[in-house]
Backbone:
């Protein structure tokens, strides 16, 4: 069984920074693309940033220039550096990964989420 566990959320003032982490555990053959999503109160979950196994990245327009996604393949860990945070960034942030397990099944795995609250 593959699990993703996020950490690093919390309360921060507008203009501040946070770094989210997402660690994958279990018997993993390979992790393909990984991504961060977020869901604000009363809104649908939306993609924030994604990164391929080779390191190519993409971002939602709303976070370009402020957020940076990265990964450590040796540690099976995904990161999201969030700078210049705004009240509109308040949401539960979820990690997502496309994982090939040890028995070569491809799984779409979600973490449990970590809450980011930005005070204005």
Residues:
């Amino acid at each position: 069984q593959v699990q993703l566990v996020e950490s690093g959320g919390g309360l921060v003032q507008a203009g501040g920074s946070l770094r989210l982490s997402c660690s994958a555990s279990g018997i993993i053959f390979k992790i393909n693309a990984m991504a961060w999503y977020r869901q604000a109160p009363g809104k649908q979950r939306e993609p924030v940033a994604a990164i391929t196994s080779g390191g190519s990245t993409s971002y939602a327009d709303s976070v370009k220039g402020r957020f940076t996604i990265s990964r450590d393949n040796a540690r099976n860990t995904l990161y999201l550096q969030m700078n210049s945070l705004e009240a509109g960034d308040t949401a539960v942030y979820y990690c997502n990964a496309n994982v090939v397990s040890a028995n070569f099944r491809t799984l779409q795995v979600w973490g449990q989420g970590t809450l980011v609250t930005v005070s204005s």
Summary: The two ends are 40 Å apart (CA to CA). The CA atoms of residues 49 and 59 lie 4 Å apart.
